[in-house]
Amino acid sequence: MKAFVVERYHKDGLRAADVPEPRLGDGDVLVRVRAAGVNPLDSKIRDGEFKLILRYRRPFVLGNDVAGVVTRVGPAVRGLKVGDEVYARPGKDRIGTFAQLIAIDQDDVALKPASLSMSEAAAVPLAGLTAWQALVERANVTAGQKVLIHAGSGGVGTMAIQLAKHLGATVATTTSTANVDWVKSLGADIVVDYRHEDFAAVLSGYDVVLDSLGGETLAKSLTVVKPGGLVIGVAGPPDPGFAKEIAASAVLRVAMTLLSRRIRRQAKRWGVRYSFLFMRASGPQLRELTTLIDAGHVRPVVDRMFPFDATLEALAYVEQGHAKGKVVVTLD
């Protein structure tokens, strides 16, 4: 089958190749890929930024979002059958959606929302699960709370704004001048144009911040949450809680503790909490999102679609950082 594989950790390390069809485990479903979402995470994996955490044996197929049709099922599979239209974020150890076929654990798969096309569905899993695990699972956002979501026009941002609004929160976001009105249409109550304003100077008293940018933005986010508030970072640095979550080795635990020491100390000084989130695959949570999507409460945003053969161009476009919502490659 055709696929895009990482041969070496480098910007130019991804190429098209013919690879064997994936093996199907007893609890797996084999999915013929109809569309695959393209994420900044794909670039980071390709460049080796997570090679200490995600130990892939090269060459490996890249890609973390998929929508497609089940073509085979393992003997232990229940609730899914050949012909089902599904979507998924494969488990972190079994990525590979930039391919014609992928085998996925049944627990990571959900039926595709009926109201979405394949391309739209492929834009949901990684961004949607990140938003869900941050706002629902970790922060337990409730009506009346104040939530700040950085980079509101990005893939995670567009989903998180809609989800936080559905949960009843007052939602603030940061974006560029051109996208101010657009993110308001997604549900943002307060929009800070980062080209002209410093969010830390105009926002205060927030319960939760979801940060996908890291660096200075993460550090300044600590100052806008109220005492006891929570800042969730998806761009790092990884913290001891994450090390425990993945059962990291002693060396990695020490490394993560050191990497996050500065931001954790700053959080303590401000009387707030910092938590690193590396989202995980979850079919049950995708089914929750499906319900919200088909009810019209949340909708994925697709910026551009590329043909499968142009996957390298799609990834380059994402790396520019200007996409509104998600970028998708299609195999129709």
Automatic annotation (TrEMBL):
Pfam families: ADH_N, ADH_zinc_N_2. The keyword Nuclease does not apply. Residues 11-329 form the Enoyl reductase (ER) domain. GO terms for molecular function: oxidoreductase activity. It is an enzyme of class 1 (oxidoreductase). Keywords: Oxidoreductase. Its EC number is 1.-.-.-. InterPro entries: ADH-like_N (IPR013154), ER (IPR020843), Quin_OxRdtase/zeta-crystal_CS (IPR002364), YIM1/Zinc_Alcohol_DH_Fams (IPR050700). CDD domains: MDR_like_2 (cd05289). This is NADP-dependent oxidoreductase. It comes from Nonomuraea guangzhouensis.
